[in-house]
Amino acid sequence: MIKIICVGKLTQQYLKTGIEHYNKQITHKINWIEVNDENQSNGMQVEKQRIFERLNPDDFVVSLAIEGKQYSSEKFAREFDKWLTYQPHDVVFIIGGSNGLDEEVKKRSQVLLSFSPLTFPHQLMRLILIEQIYRAAMIHKNHPYHK
Question: What's the pTM value of the predicted model, to 2 decimals?
Fold first, then answer.
């Protein structure tokens, strides 16, 4: 199974519509998990705890981070396929909130993934991520969508 843990609530309808579109196209079951974001001084610590509460010890964790590895779509598709095929448990993507992710969450991750050196709103990253998961599935099927 694929889990996507997101800090904060998705509020933008156009993003919800786009995410629903790709969710319907993907054959893998995706479990979307929202954890509340915090704006207090210890907010990232609280968010970290909420994220860790939703992880299993065997989960393969991929955290989205600007300093992470960048892949072409084809390379991401190959890596994603390996993660799904050879990992003993769920593949979990983590999208931080507006303050990013706590360092301990990054250390728990097997992969730090970046889609660009640009900074994107965390709500928009949900749509970008699911589109790339869909694209990876199309590449795996040799479908021309990804070109």
Answer: 0.93
